[in-house]
Amino acid sequence: MKPVQLSPIVAGAWRMADWNWTKEQRLRWIEQCLERGVTSFDHADIYGNYSVEQLFGEALALRPELRSQMQLVSKCGIKLISDQRPEHHIKSYDHSKKHILNSVDQSLKALQTDHLDVLLLHRPSPLMHADEVAEAFSLLKAEGKVLHFGVSNFTPAQFDLLNSRFELVTNQIELSPLHLDPLHDGTLDQAQQLKAPPMVWSPLAQGRIFTEHSERAKRVRSTLEKLAQSLGVAVSTVVYAWILKHPARPIPITGSHRIEAIDEAVKALEVHLTDEQWFEVWQASQGHEVP
Ligand SMILES: NC(=O)c1ccc[n+]([C@@H]2O[C@H](COP(=O)([O-])OP(=O)(O)OC[C@H]3O[C@@H](n4cnc5c(N)ncnc54)[C@H](OP(=O)(O)O)[C@@H]3O)[C@@H](O)[C@H]2O)c1
User: Fold this and answer.
1) Distance (Å) from CA 102 to ligand 1 centroid
2) Residue nearest ligand 1's atom 5 by CA
């Protein structure tokens, strides 16, 4: 299988509905991302109460030729209680073949495209039938509607289960200096073992890197600030460099609407932390030195 080619920094569209932008502003943001080599965009059916894919698709329709220069990632499997989906009675997960196929059709329509580059199951469900998911994925691939498949927020065991039925290319996970779990729970070891680079969500802890008042966050912030000053780059650049240093080859997803913030992320591709600098951030987050 041709490996999935995502850009080393991906632009996240989760918050796009909150930006209250015109179509033209959304298009400009997409163009500016592309100009910076950020060619992959992360979506989910549910973002913005099921509205973001459509907001993006409307903007893309102004310049449809841009589709061939970008990769679109989307997700399915979470059912929100929403005026957009009156048939949902409780927030739940649905990994049935029917739901996956319907969700992809709706994503393609909203995004105004004929294929997704990557489809992810958004959250693991205790009721997931791996064979049924594999059947849905096989059909979507055969129809050319989705090129590659992955998961998000899966434990290594959950990833192994589905990967035993259908080859997965990524696990999209939370990782930041304020969320170290994947470094130690086997998630990143598995990604490295399988050579399946993980996509990383909330690399800046949803902005809490800059705003949280806990002792831990203050320690992390002052360490990041010291490193940023000595390297002559922004604090967020140090965070991205810290994530990018991991040997599993993580792909951070930015969440900002500001192009300067995207620039700060891209800048990290040229910044190489030493192992000791990396452990300074780890130590600040843990509150103790390595054993
Ligand atoms: N798979 C999943 O379960 C899952 C879950 C959550 C997110 N995601 C994906 O991951 C993407 C990124 O997540 P995220 O939005 O939480 O990422 P993030 O980069 O950790 O947080 C972005 C937020 O931090 C704010 N921020 C404050 N100061 C900033 C600075 N100096 N630089 C950059 N941002 C700053 C941004 O506001 P401004 O816009 O004002 O800069 C924005 O609201 C989402 O768009 C989505 O695609 C996936």
Assistant:
1) 28
2) 201
Instruction: Look up the domain containing 14 and give its range.
Output: 10-169
Give the number of the atom of ligand 1 that is nearest the alpha carbon of residue 120: 1
Alpha-carbon gap, residue 124 to 145, rounded angstroms: 22
29 is a domain residue: yes
Number of domains into which the chain is organized:
1
Q: How are beta strands 10-12 and 40-42 bridged, if at all?
A: parallel
> Which residue type occupies 149?
F
Amino acid at position 222, single letter = S
Pocket test residue of 253, 257, 262 for ligand 1, highest count of atoms within 8 A of CB = 253
User: Would 81 be classed as within a structural domain?
Assistant: yes
d(CA 42, CA 251): 11
Residue-by-residue DSSP string for 41-54 = EE--TTHHHHTHHH
> Structure pTM?
0.98
Residue 54 covered by a domain? yes
In a mutational test of the pocket of ligand 1, which residue from 172, 201, 212 has the highest number of ligand atoms less than 8 Å from its CB?
A: 201
Q: Is residue 250 part of a domain?
A: no
Q: What tokens appear for 44 in the block?
A: 């989910």
**CA-CA distance, 286 to 61, in Å (whole number)?**
46
Query: 149 pairs with which residues across the strands?
Result: 119
What is the domain-level CATH number for residue 21?
Answer: 3.20.20.100
pLDDT tens per residue across all 291 residues of the chain: 456 799 999 999 999 999 999 999 999 999 999 999 999 999 999 999 999 999 999 999 999 999 999 999 999 999 999 999 999 999 999 999 999 999 999 999 999 999 999 999 999 999 999 999 999 999 999 999 999 999 999 999 999 999 999 999 999 999 999 999 999 999 999 999 999 999 999 999 999 999 999 999 999 999 999 999 999 999 999 999 999 999 999 999 999 999 999 999 999 999 999 999 999 999 999 999 999
